[in-house]
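Hi team,

Filling in the usual template for the complex we talked about on Friday. All components are listed, including any nucleic acid strands or ligand strings, so the model treats them as one assembly.

SUBMITTER: L.P.
PURPOSE: interface mapping
COMPONENTS: two
RESIDUES: 351
SEQUENCES:
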Amino acid sequence: MRLMSSFDSVKSALAAAAPVMAGYVAIGLPCGIMESQIGLNALMAFVVSVTFYSGAGQFMIDGMWLAGSPVASIVASVSFVNTRQLLYSAGFAPYFAKTKKWLTFLFSATVTDESFGVNLSKFQQGEWSAAQATFVNLFCMFTWGVANAAGALIGDVVDIPTAIASFAMTSIFICLLVSQRFDRTAVVVVITTMLGVFACKCAGLAGPAILLGAVIGMVCGLLFDRASRRVVHRGAPDAGGEAR
Amino acid sequence: MSLQDFFLIYGICLVCMLVCRCVPIFVLKGRELPAGVQRALNLIPVAAFSALVANDLFTPGMFAAGLWPAAMPLVAAAVVVVVAWKTRSLVWCAVAGVVVYAILLFL
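RESULT (copied from the run log):
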């Protein structure tokens, strides 16, 4: 009976993970092809994919590497972009208050943008366990690793132009950007970040342009947010008066 | 660059990634983040993805070789924005982006 319920919970985790797994096959193949272009074989691509396990990060490393960026710029830019994981990890904290440490570690070490979305909505709906959430992560991670390894194998045989393969990455970044929650502060961040990146490149700082541009955008966003809060705060007594 | 350089990049990025992924969930168990920190963290994804998109699409002197070579990725990106808006699907965006880009490239 208990075995059956465990089987059911794994099955429901697989059902929740399936759409993400399908996506990872489609995106993992071009990522693996790019990895083969920088010299990784299938086994290396698999190991990198199931440990680092970051689509955006892996595409960035490959793309910046092929563009000839310095090591320090690649590390700083990729690590900055991955700091968004802090937000995801913090978001899951309330659901793991009573979970064992090893399971909390295994879960948190395998969270991605997509599995974050799936698991958070399942937790919010209720009746979702830490073990099921971890299974979702592991199913997706294994699929990502295999798709990357397959891509690296294909990449040895088929020569796909880098410009086309890397536009898959650009498209993924656009989708991830469009999928964010947009308010006025976010619009300010988008515009100032893009201007910041362009300005850095014009100033000959192409290497750290991603990191610097994003920091400029965040600072502008925080300043705008603070200024608009002050305006709202100042206007608050009047608004309260009207309400009365 | 050599594979040794690659594994240096991979190793440092992996450590940073694990810290970002694992530390908050252990530190915050049952607690809330300060509001200011939460606000700053909320802006990271928008800033990071905007920077990545801008880095891929905009280069100084991009129109020097003519209007079309520079406008072509922007047209493909505009199609991806519409697909992303409608579907919110990474797969459809990647497929649409690559197909439109390849068609425009060979036009």
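MY TAKE: Chain B has a mean pLDDT of 88. Chain B touches chain A through 69 residues (CB under 8 Å).

Thanks, L.
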